[in-house]
Amino acid sequence: MNAAGRLIAPAPTPLRWSSPVRVGLRLGGRLVALGVVLAWLIYLRPTALGGPAAYLVIRGDSMLPTYTGGELVIIRPAASYATGDVVAYRVPANELGAGRIVIHRIVEVTGAGTGHPTYTMQGDNNPAPDPWQPAATDIVGRPWIVVPSIGRILAVLHQPAVLAALAVAAVAVAAFWRSRRFAGPGKMSGCSVPQSPPPPPAWPIASSSSEADSAA
Fold first, then answer.
1. CA angle 80-44-33, nearest 5°?
2. 3-class DSSP state for residue 175?
3. How many angstroms separate the CA atoms of 157 and 171, rounded?
4. Partners of 74 in the beta sheet?
5. Which CATH number among 2.10.109.10, 3.40.30.10, 3.40.1280.10, 3.40.50.300 corresponds to the domain 54-148?
6. Could you tell me what percent of the chain has a pLDDT over 70?
7. With contact defined as beta carbons under 8 Å apart, do 89 and 108 qualify?
């Protein structure tokens, strides 16, 4: 009931999770995040970080129709490779284009019984084999996961102009966030924000009524 004698409905009580439910949801979220991190470390960590996976973006049309340009292929090593397998390999040392990674199909294996096999490679859309014959140590691995179209996005992001624009945007956002964080209440980029006046003192109702009557 307010000062005018009217009944005031109580504010609805917000729905809140009980403490055990909140703890369970929080713990479940952390376990899911931990599982994702562990899966990434075990299966998807790049070779540059000591992991087993290599990430390649398909360029050109030498592997049509198996793979198209712009696809992202995740490569993992295998125990052995045979004729008919699609593999990614590095161009052997002392060859033209040495170190470049190519993903083609094995069309012939030479010296398989010697323990030091070499592989004849050819693209599915190429009329002739590759000029290189990689050894087992040159094989990066076999395709494991293919993600369509994402390679085009990665290729755009790797362009110098795009990288420069993203770097400038990141610096601007960081500077803006830092200015907001350290400006303090009512201060932001040189402009002042008016502060709300303090609320009037909560006088007792009986005292207010007596003062009003005396003023009348």
1. 145
2. helix
3. 17
4. 55, 145
5. 2.10.109.10
6. 69
7. no
